Amino acid sequence: MTLRTSGIRQPSIWPSLVSDDAVGLRDWHMALGFTVDLAIPGERPGTLHHCQLDWPDGGRVTLASTGERSTPCRPGSSWLHVVSSDPDAVFDRARSLEAAVIHELSDQTDYPSRDFTIADPDGNHWTFATFAG
């Protein structure tokens, strides 16, 4: 098997998630605006050994199906912060996916950010924000 990536170099920290339905979680993230850079099928049908998802504003997240790798990680146990130049558009896409909203889209008053937090189908929390630190 020949593997090809986009060749786009992403920041050096890549959060990794495991999922009982990594293919479904990959598709859910793509509907939010992530793109697939690389996907390596798992050993069992319908699973992923490794998948790299890129965010259009920069950054990468990796996914793997539960049981593909030896890891203490469990589905639904992460909280990730994603810098977005247009959180309103991402929020609209999240609503169309009927994502569980943890924190509504709002402008923060104690720091310069417009953001919201949702839960993915596994229960991981995702904050999409204009605040980049």
Characterization of this structure:
The protein is an alpha/beta fold. The protein has one domain (16-66, 76-129): 2,3-Dihydroxybiphenyl 1,2-Dioxygenase, domain 1, CATH 3.10.180. 16% of the residues lie in helices and 36% in strands. The chain has two helices and eight strands. It has helices spanning 22-32, 87-96; strands at 16-19, 35-41, 48-54, 60-65, 79-83, 100-107, 114-119, 125-129. It has a four-stranded mixed sheet, with helices on one face. It is globular. The N and C termini lie far apart (40 Å).
Order of helices and strands: EHEEEEHEEE
Helix/strand class: alpha/beta
Q: What is the class in the CATH system?
A: Alpha Beta
Q: If strands are numbered along the chain, what order do they take across the biggest sheet? A: 1-4-3-2
Query: Care to count the β-strands?
Result: 8
Percent in strands: 35-45%
By CATH, the superfamily comes out as 2,3-Dihydroxybiphenyl 1,2-Dioxygenase, domain 1
Which of globular, elongated, flat, extended, rod-shaped describes the shape?
globular
Query: Uncertain segments of ≥5 residues (pLDDT<50)?
Result: none
What is the share of helical residues?
10-25%
- Identify the CATH architecture: Roll
Oligomer: single chain
Radius of gyration: 15 Å
Distance between the amino and carboxyl termini: 40 Å
Total count of domains: 1
CATH topology: 2,3-Dihydroxybiphenyl 1,2-Dioxygenase, domain 1
The mean pLDDT is 92
Helix segment count? 2
Major β-sheet, in short?
4 strands, mixed
